[in-house]
Amino acid sequence: MAEVAYAKGLEGIIAGESAISRIDGQAGRLTYRGFSIEELAEYSDFEEATYLLLYEKLPNSSEMEAFRRTMRASRGISAPIIEMVRSFPIGAHPMELLQSVMAYLSGYVEHRIQHSASCNCRQTLHQVAQIATVVAAYKRLRDGEAFVSPRMDLSHGANFLYMLRGVEPEPYEGEIMDKCLVLHAEHGFNASTFTARVVASTLSTCYSSISAAMGALYGSLHGGANERVMAMVEEIGTKANVGKWVNDALDNHKKIMGMGHREYRVKDPRANTIESMLRTLSEKKGDSRYYDILKEVERVFRARMETSGKPIYPNVDFFSGAVYSLLGIPKQLFTPVFAIARVSGWLAHVLEQRVGNRIFRPESLYTGPEVREYVPIEERE
Ligand SMILES: CC(C)(COP(=O)(O)OP(=O)(O)OC[C@H]1O[C@@H](n2cnc3c(N)ncnc32)[C@H](O)[C@@H]1OP(=O)(O)O)[C@@H](O)C(=O)NCCC(=O)NCCS
Questions:
Q1: Is the shortest distance between the CB of 342 and ligand 1 below 6 Å?
Q2: Which of 126, 172, 223, 321 lies in disulfide reach of 335, CB 3.0 to 4.6 Å?
Q3: Domain ranges, ordered by start, for the chain
Q4: Is the pTM of this model over 0.90?
Q5: How far, in Å, is the centroid of ligand 1 from the Cα of 232?
Q6: 375 CA to centre of ligand 1 in angstroms
Q7: What is d(CA 22, CA 41) in angstroms, rounded to the nearest whole number?
Q8: Which fold has domain 19-216+336-354?
């Protein structure tokens, strides 16, 4: 057998081709279809970024208008979905709900899965538009409040906050929420996107691909990290406690959530943008508690890592949880908020996978016993 490359966690292995986003981990650069994440966060919005990911170019005015209209018209969820949200087991995590809703939604559409151009997911945008509504419905129904129908006149981010709160957010809050969605929309062959592509490569539906991706995002080493960053901030409590807390954690070989990244050898460019949004939001709200604690964690952690020769920097999750907390989003919804954004990237990858598709079927390195003889049960010890 020819020699086969092996790296645990597929580190450094090219598993496919993609023209969707590019990560330069050495320089700390990220682009979607060639546009820098900094410019997109500054000038674009989530709907336009979604168009860019799905259609490979920035839209002109009429294309943008038509796309916004379609995506906003798909925001509403049907009565059976609202019922599903209401009756989902109380103890279940909202990511489990999203995974199930995604599979359920599949039943509503006729699947044409042969080629990206004719895929009806791209035409209806159900998945991209409806996850935000499902997450908001989950929060309100769990809190014993009435479901709030989506508004068509608000951006995706502002509408999400509106559906959560039942009142329109301040314009700066809507803008920050929407920019967070832009920053989280796409990030190459990460675990959840790769999962979506593996499922798509079997010629399964967009919905099942995205449902599977939700399961991958749920894990604490991926989408779950920001929830755990905020749990850490709450446990630390004050800036003065940071030094002891971080050093104790590292002495006990614990990982600091929100730090480190497989791809970046410098600070994640998305972390820079979210950090500045957190600073703005903290000033507007007159509450810099989270910002101060996080900056101190970063300082202590980096100093300690540099002395041990492991330069490790904040990733996108390090500051995002604090932004969400200041926007009034509870911790349990942080990973679902990540999913609201990342679904655009997942869909773009599913569609890309189908063009020139080949089913994923890697090999494993066998570590089990050599061939041995079957012993009848009465002769076994
Ligand atoms: C993101 C992450 C999973 C990348 O994993 P990876 O590329 O497999 O890197 P490893 O986990 O093998 O880490 C390499 C080394 O850095 C250390 N390290 C990495 N992240 C660390 C962290 N957050 N805190 C402390 N040490 C860390 C590891 O302990 C390991 O040290 P060792 O070589 O002495 O064993 C990892 O950095 C991590 O678990 N971070 C925390 C979770 C997180 O924030 N996830 C969100 C990602 S966007």
A1: no
A2: 223
A3: 19-216+336-354, 225-326
A4: yes
A5: 16
A6: 44
A7: 16
A8: Citrate Synthase; domain 1 (1.10.580)
185 within ligand 1 shell (Cβ under 6 A): no
Using a 6 Å cutoff on CB, does residue 9 contact ligand 1? yes
Question: Ligand 1 center to residue 228 CA distance, Å?
Answer: 14
Is the CB of 154 inside a 6 Å radius of any atom of ligand 1?
Answer: no
pLDDT digits (tens, 9 = 90+) for 130-154: 999 999 999 999 999 999 999 999 9
Query: Looking at domain 225-326, does it have CATH number 1.10.3720.10?
Result: no
317 labelled catalytic: yes
CA of 260 to the centre of ligand 1 (A): 5
**Residue of 192, 218, 220, 261 best suited for mutating to test ligand 1, as the one with most atoms within 8 Å of CB:** 261
26 Cα–ligand 1 center, Å: 17
pLDDT digits (tens, 9 = 90+) for 86-110: 999 999 999 999 999 998 888 776 6
Q: Which residue has the tokens 């599949």?
A: 106
Tokens of 47: 């709907």
**Coil/strand/helix, residue 327:** coil
Q: Is 222 a catalytic residue?
A: yes
Look up residue 125 and give its two tokens.
Answer: 């945008």
For the four alpha carbons of 211, 216, 220 and 223, in that order, the dihedral sign comes to negative
CA atoms within 13 A on the CB side of 221: 8
- Fold match between domain 19-216+336-354 and domain 225-326: no
User: Is the minimum distance from the CB of 310 to ligand 1 under 6 angstroms?
Assistant: yes
Among 126, 261, 268, 349, the one annotated catalytic: 261
Which atom of ligand 1 lies closest to the CA of 223? Answer: 46
Tens digits of residue pLDDT in 176-223: 999 999 999 999 999 999 999 999 999 888 899 999 999 999 988 888
Instruction: Examine the pLDDT at 267 and tell me if it is beyond 80.
Output: yes
Query: Hey, what are 129's tokens?
Result: 């538009």
Q: Is 180 left (phi over 0), alpha (psi -120 to 50) or beta?
A: alpha
